[in-house]
């Protein structure tokens, strides 16, 4: 074995110490004690919404603490295996060194993922996320691409055991979707997925072209933080225009039978939100208002950032129009144009294996922000 285990383990410990300094395990334990006390209250479920928030926060904090403490234990176990190998000879020594090498590789990969979580320190990074996908230029291919992206993100959430709710889907006439909006109800979903916002491009032989020509199509991904009751985004009724219409799309008892779908327009900004996932008009109106409030919150945040940049004399845009390219023909490659990260297994990417793209994007964003501050 050519691996210098003492140096590698020291490097792991240094990175882990930096993570511990940011995550503050003692504070996490205090939060767990407080949330556990709230969760044990006999009247907890008198307010189901608050109860759900308490139990969700408790689960998240417990998971965060377990992730950190478990990593520390894994590094200690690796060190013990290496020490034991030093006491053995021959085949036993080689087997232990092979086990240590495999453990080292996995710890390095998982520690890098854990380190990325510490980079999520934005104002709304810890929030759940509302994601909207819209088809762009490219006709029916673009609508099909938008549906492929929708499945990709839902599969990613499923792989990570993040609950999702598809709130609205507008189907295209021939195939695919014009747009779709869904929630990812997990802590730090916004901070994680926000690096996915931007224009995505697909290059492939069009399955909708009888001549089998190569087609380039585009889809836009928007990611906003989910509104919370403490945000106080008040919207006067005079600023709203609300239209009701019949839901469209496949299946469901309420589809095409009642005017339950809602289209809400915020007159001052022109922001439009449509909801048809719920069965009643009241439920769809509430869902539309929540997403509208989230978008106004994001708009306010962007305006504050723009004002700070203007004061600092920085007018450079952080995001280009096209941030990722999915090429299926003449070769197969998914490449992020900001980070340079690429993956030749396009089937796996479209099946939700995008964590490496997301992690690279979070690191790229942090490096970009650090460069702007200098």
Automatic annotation (TrEMBL):
<keyword id="KW-0963">Cytoplasm</keyword>
<protein>
    <recommendedName>
        <fullName>Peptide chain release factor 2</fullName>
    </recommendedName>
</protein>
<dbReference type="Pfam" id="PF03462">
    <property type="entry name" value="PCRF"/>
</dbReference>
<dbReference type="InterPro" id="IPR004374">
    <property type="entry name" value="PrfB"/>
</dbReference>
<feature type="domain" description="Prokaryotic-type class I peptide chain release factors">
    <location>
        <begin position="246"/>
        <end position="262"/>
    </location>
</feature>
<dbReference type="InterPro" id="IPR000352">
    <property type="entry name" value="Pep_chain_release_fac_I"/>
</dbReference>
<feature type="modified residue" description="N5-methylglutamine">
    <location>
        <position position="253"/>
    </location>
</feature>
<keyword id="KW-0648">Protein biosynthesis</keyword>
<comment type="function">
    <text>Peptide chain release factor 2 directs the termination of translation in response to the peptide chain termination codons UGA and UAA.</text>
</comment>
<dbReference type="GO" id="GO:0005737">
    <property type="term" value="C:cytoplasm"/>
</dbReference>
<comment type="similarity">
    <text>Belongs to the prokaryotic/mitochondrial release factor family.</text>
</comment>
<keyword id="KW-0488">Methylation</keyword>
<dbReference type="InterPro" id="IPR005139">
    <property type="entry name" value="PCRF"/>
</dbReference>
<dbReference type="GO" id="GO:0016149">
    <property type="term" value="F:translation release factor activity, codon specific"/>
</dbReference>
<dbReference type="Pfam" id="PF00472">
    <property type="entry name" value="RF-1"/>
</dbReference>
<dbReference type="InterPro" id="IPR045853">
    <property type="entry name" value="Pep_chain_release_fac_I_sf"/>
</dbReference>
């Amino acid at each position: 074995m050519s691996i210098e285990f003492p140096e590698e383990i020291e490097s792991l410990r240094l990175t882990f110490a930096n993570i511990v300094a940011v995550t503050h395990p003692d504070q996490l334990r205090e939060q767990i004690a407080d949330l556990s006390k709230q969760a044990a209250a006999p009247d907890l479920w008198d307010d189901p919404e608050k109860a759900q928030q308490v139990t969700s926060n408790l689960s998240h904090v417990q998971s965060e603490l377990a992730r950190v403490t478990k990593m520390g234990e894994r590094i200690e176990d690796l060190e013990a295996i290496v020490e034991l190998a030093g006491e053995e000879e021959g085949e036993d020594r080689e087997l232990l060194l092979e086990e240590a090498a495999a453990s080292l590789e996995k710890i390095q990969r998982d520690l890098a993922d854990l380190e990325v979580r510490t980079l999520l320190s934005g104002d709304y990074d810890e929030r759940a996320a509302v994601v909207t996908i819209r088809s762009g230029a490219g006709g029916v291919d673009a609508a099909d691409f938008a549906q492929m992206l929708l499945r990709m993100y839902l599969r990613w959430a499923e792989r990570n055991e993040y609950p999702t709710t598809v709130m609205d889907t507008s189907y295209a006439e021939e195939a695919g979707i014009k747009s779709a909006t869904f929630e990812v109800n997990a802590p730090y979903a916004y901070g994680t997925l926000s690096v996915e916002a931007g224009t995505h491009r697909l290059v492939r032989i069009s399955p909708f072209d009888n001549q089998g020509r190569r087609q380039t199509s585009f889809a836009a991904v928007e990611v906003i933080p989910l509104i919370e009751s403490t945000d106080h985004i008040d919207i006067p009724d005079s600023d709203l225009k609300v239209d009701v219409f019949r839901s469209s799309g496949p299946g469901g008892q309420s589809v095409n039978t009642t005017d339950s779908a809602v289209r809400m327009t915020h007159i001052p900004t022109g922001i439009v939100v449509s909801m048809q996932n719920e069965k009643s008009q009241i439920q769809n109106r509430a869902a539309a208002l929540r997403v509208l409030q989230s978008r106004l919150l994001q708009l306010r945040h962007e305006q504050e950032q723009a004002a700070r940049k203007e004061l600092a004399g920085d007018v450079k845009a952080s995001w280009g129009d096209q941030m990722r390219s999915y090429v299926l023909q003449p070769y197969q490659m998914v490449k992020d144009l900001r980070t340079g990260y690429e993956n030749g297994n396009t089937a796996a990417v479209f099946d939700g294996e995008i964590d490496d793209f997301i992690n690279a994007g979070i690191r790229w964003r942090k490096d970009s922000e650090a460069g702007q501050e200098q």
